[in-house]
Amino acid sequence: MLHKTLMRCCALLALMPCAAIAQDRIIMQNGDIITGNISLITDEEILIEPSYADEYAIDIAEVATVEVEEFFEIEFQDESEVQARLAVDDLGQQVLLTENGDSRPITLADLSEAAEPEPYFDWSLKADFNGAYNSGNTDSESTMLFADGSVKWGDHRHRADFTLRNEEVNNEKTQEQTLINYGYSWLFNKPWFLGGGFSYERDPIRDLEYRYTASALLGRDIFDDSSKYLGISIGPGYQRQELGDETKGGGVGIWNLRYEHALLDWMDFFHTQSFTWQFYGNENQIYKTNTGLNFDLISDLYMNVSLRYDYETEPAEGRDNEDSTLAFGVGYKF
Length: 334
Fold this sequence. Notes:
By secondary structure, the protein is mostly beta strands. It folds into two domains: 20-115, no CATH class; 121-333, Porin. Helices cover 6% and strands 69% of the residues. The protein is built from one helix and 22 strands. The protein has a twelve-stranded antiparallel barrel. It starts with a helix and ends with a strand.
């Protein structure tokens, strides 16, 4: 008797994981059934990751019905939004199930986008290292360390990055830059956000002993989905710097842009830029960009190529207006 009871318990335990693993389902127009995890539905395609392969796209015109096990954030063609599940009724028709249990028939053509809800808490961190060494007629050494991290807590987002650039040619320093940026944003009325920022920069080669900037910003997320992000912000700020032999401070105007796009499963594009207009002194205008590609190698290890470009209309006396760095290196995502 005890032996039979143990056998039954073992059988139930073995079945429990199978019952717990619920999968989304796509029924094609030709009757084929595809199961897996659906992450995004647009008016053109559905992204699904089956258990036996990487995520891929399916042409939505070839799809008859879709079933998802989780509640998605759904936007319709008329720009109305709801959090609901896509399901199929007893007659095999596509329906929408809301959180309060209501059901209504829809067609996939009604959808503009349906995506998994963002986690309440999320974080990311990555670090890049770029270096070049030459010896012979010219001895040179160039290194750049870049780290970028973000934390999301509900509608509150924090982002920071750190850059350390050094270059030496024939034992003479030709570049020595330290740059730290921090930004905070609050999605008070999605996609609009309020926030603020702080930055510190030092570059003795350009006679910049220090430059502190604090700002208040208003911004908007233009795109924000599983494959791409584009956000812009603008606002006033205060800045203080020691450039050359002069120490000055005053009001500034700031404009920022950040764009990230997963072009392929193994390749990501990124571009950030900032423009600062000093409303004091000689009204220097400062423009900074960082553009590049990340290529996945193994697991969370990637190769990267980036182009950094800095430009100032009024640099220190005897210094160039622009400074650019083309870098190749490796990075790691934590």
